[in-house]
């Protein structure tokens, strides 16, 4: 009903990272996780963040995923998904004025006529964040809830919207369409808007969000149904059939022979299938590549060796993959075991994650990604450093990833639009404002995104992992080129 011919080019993690996590899960469990009609349990998730600042979880495990600023570690706050409780103030060095401040330096409209409404009381504006937290891969999109909480903590440490602090209800969509739908029923009834949400089966709540008109500013919209929802937007906006040619041309200049005999492999499920085929066709059409091997790998496949052998026999010199980073590790390790070393290996930013590096080990060396956002290693990018700093404030030890960064961006977007509307803030007026947003960069966190049309951005970075770190290899900030129609949708 809410179809739009749009899916996510970088859908590799979204498709089955949560439903498969490589081949670790039993196939029956995988099928059950995403099956139609499955009714998940929506977490209560009331995470009120309505003080001045530094409540947080008691910690976490894993590396920090980058060399960015660490900020303060914050208080010990509540555990689980209860959000911060306010407290001792903001992170040292956070800007209080201008574009880098929590208000983005937006001129505040008059608050005259401001009315309490769904999710808004005299003291609080309640938002919702819906993400896959439990399910086949626990915590798969926890970074989106962490980032949303982090921005709300940041904002509440500095100001308010017409006298009201922000609060957030953290809801669990459980990697399940039924749970996503239940979560959006709750969000429609209790929250003014949803921000920073992230789920692989987000079709479930698309109709609910559309019908109730709740502004839904997501990190990514993963299904055509969600992308067709009239009140839903994504700060990472991409169309399946439109492929930017900048990365493909950069690699063609660097590896002119390799791109004439390339392979594209993908997890054989969901949106990864058209996305991989669209990328292969787009690279051929836009940059003169020749992709001679396009192959899906089933979700339950344990043995990657036959696919590696096929590539060896075909003399493949460049390998691309679309799928969860756990499967990337299995593919690259199989390549390593069979002594197959193409001229280059590439993927989307799914593998731009400290956990991928930890699992892949030496197999990760030399890998390339294309990225539409700034790197966590970029100490000169103030917005990225704010994200990293405040992430550690709410969840010490949390590992950042690009889904979290786009959730941070989505929460900032809500704040800036709400402040600009002032006393005219309603669900409908916010949706109207978002429909006019054509070049949103999240204060420099990522390349310009057109939320109004959900168009693929033409600008990317080329980044390589070598000498133990991710390094941008392309010139300038972003390479900008054409957006090519692949003919695949």
TrEMBL record:
Pfam families with a match to the protein in the record: Peripla_BP_6
Alphabetized InterPro entries for the sequence: BCAA_transport, Leu-bd, Peripla_BP_I
Record's compositionally biased regions (Low complexity): 93-102
Comp. bias intervals (Gly residues): 34-92
Keyword Phosphoprotein in annotation: no
Keywords: Signal
Domain Leucine-binding protein: 124-468
Keyword Signal found: yes
Region (Disordered), start-end ranges: 30-102
Cleavable signal peptide: 1-19
Family according to the record: Belongs to the leucine-binding protein family.
Alphabetized PANTHER family for the sequence: LEUCINE-SPECIFIC-BINDING PROTEIN, PERIPLASMIC BINDING PROTEIN OF ABC TRANSPORTER FOR NATURAL AMINO ACIDS
Protein name as annotated: ABC transporter substrate-binding protein
Species this chain originates from: Nocardioides caeni
């Amino acid at each position: 009903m809410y179809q739009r011919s749009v899916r996510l080019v970088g859908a590799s993690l979204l498709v089955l990272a949560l439903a498969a996590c490589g081949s670790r899960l039993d196939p029956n469990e995988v099928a059950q996780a995403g099956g139609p009609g499955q009714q998940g349990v929506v977490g209560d998730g009331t995470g009120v963040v309505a003080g001045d600042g530094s409540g947080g979880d008691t910690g976490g495990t894993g590396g920090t995923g980058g060399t960015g600023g660490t900020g303060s570690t914050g208080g010990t706050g509540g555990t689980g998904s209860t959000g911060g409780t306010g407290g001792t103030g903001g992170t040292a060095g956070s800007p209080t004025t201008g574009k880098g401040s929590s208000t983005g330096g937006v001129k505040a409209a008059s608050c005259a006529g401001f009315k309490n409404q769904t999710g808004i009381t005299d003291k609080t504006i309640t938002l919702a964040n819906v993400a896959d937290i439990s399910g086949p891969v626990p915590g798969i999109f926890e970074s989106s809830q962490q980032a949303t909480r982090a921005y709300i903590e940041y904002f509440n440490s500095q100001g308010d919207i017409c006298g009201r602090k922000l609060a957030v209800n953290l809801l669990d969509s459980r990697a399940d369409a039924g749970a996503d739908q239940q979560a959006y029923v709750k969000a429609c009834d209790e929250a003014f808007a949803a921000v920073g949400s992230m789920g692989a089966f987000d079709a479930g709540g698309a109709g609910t969000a559309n019908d109730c008109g709740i502004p839904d500013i997501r990190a990514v919209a993963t299904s055509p149904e969600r992308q067709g929802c009239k009140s839903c937007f994504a700060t990472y906006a991409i169309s399946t059939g439109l492929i930017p040619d900048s990365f493909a041309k950069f690699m063609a200049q660097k590896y002119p022979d390799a791109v004439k005999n390339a392979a594209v492999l993908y997890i054989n499920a969901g949106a990864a299938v058209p996305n991989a085929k669209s990328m292969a066709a787009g690279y051929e059409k836009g940059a003169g590549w020749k992709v001679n091997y396009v192959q899906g790998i089933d979700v339950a496949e344990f043995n990657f060796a036959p696919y590696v052998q096929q590539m060896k026999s075909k003399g493949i010199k460049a390998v691309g993959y679309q799928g969860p980073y756990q499967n990337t590790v299995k593919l690259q390790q199989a390549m390593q075991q069979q002594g197959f070393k193409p001229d280059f290996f590439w993927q989307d930013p799914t593998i731009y994650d400290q956990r991928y590096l930890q699992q892949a080990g030496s197999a990760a060396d030399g890998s390339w990604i294309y990225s539409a956002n700034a790197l966590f290693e970029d100490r000169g990018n103030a917005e990225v450093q704010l994200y990293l700093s405040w992430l550690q404030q709410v969840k010490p030890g949390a590992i950042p990833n690009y889904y979290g960064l786009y959730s941070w961006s989505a929460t900032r977007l809500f704040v800036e639009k709400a402040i600009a509307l002032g006393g005219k803030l309603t669900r409908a007026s916010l949706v109207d404002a978002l429909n006019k947003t054509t070049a949103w960069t999240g204060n420099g966190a990522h390349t310009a995104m057109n939320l109004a049309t959900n168009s693929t951005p033409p600008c990317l970075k080329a980044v390589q992992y070598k000498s133990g770190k991710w390094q941008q290899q392309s010139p300038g900030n972003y390479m900008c080129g054409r957006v090519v129609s692949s003919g695949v949708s």
